[in-house]
Structures are given as C-alpha cells and as structure tokens.
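Continuing the batch. This is chain 6 of the set; chains 1 through 5 are on the previous pages. Same settings as before, nothing changed between runs. Recording input and output for traceability.
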Amino acid sequence: MSSPGNTLPPNLARIVEKFKKRSDPKKRYEQLLWYGKKLEAMPEGTKIEDNKVKGCVSQVYITADLEDGKIWYKGDSDAQLVKGLVALLVEGLNGLTPSEIMEVTPDFIEEMGLNVSLTPSRANGFYNIFQMMKKKALAFQLGTSG
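Output for chain 6:
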C-alpha cells in the first residue's frame, strides 16, 4: 500500500473531496448518478471488444486519445451507477500525461468511501475500469503511438 501522502491530480483530488464530504452512502450514489448524467456520449463505433473493460458485470467501454502529450478518455456503460464511476474517472484523469496517470494508485477509491458504498462486484468493476485506463496510458507511454 502506498502512503496517503500520494498527491492526486487536481481534478481527481477535487472529486475525492466531494465524495469525502458525503458520509451517507445514498448521497454518494446520488453523486455518482449525477456524474453519469454529465458523461459525454461515446461514439457507438468505438464500442468494440478492444475497448471493452473485462471483469465488469455491466457493459463498459473506454477509449483513450493522445493529444499534445496528454490523454483524453471517453467511456460509457449500460448501467447508470457504473456510468457514474466511468464519468468520475474520465473527469479525474483527462488531460494528464501518460506518466502522471501511471503514478495514480487506486487508494483514492477507499479515501472516497466508495469501497464501502459499492457492492463487491461494482467495486471490483471500478478497479477494472481504472486498470484499463492505466493500461491505455501505459501503451502511450511505451510509445505505441506517434
């Protein structure tokens, strides 16, 4: 486990703070649903096997584009709550460099209190979505792009 001294990227830190203020699990769910509604639509054509997150009960897709050295994610899910999880990760990680994304550890999930609010399968799905985003960042970092 890494120390809580880990500094999160500013956007992700802001999201974590929002969730930490909500001690009621119901309020955390409402917050997630709100993020899900804000999520930008993902082009249907990008919902392909390569972009599908494995190990999720619901259908989840993540794409990543590299522009000027920064990664921009898009994502979608057929489950509203999971869509909220995707949205907060997209918002929290967009605009970072691949190496900045690789430094983010999943500890923030506990800090947000989501690990206790979510069912084990959803919490596991959240980790899988996060790992998929890191995997895509790693591909860019290793120079498999431009």
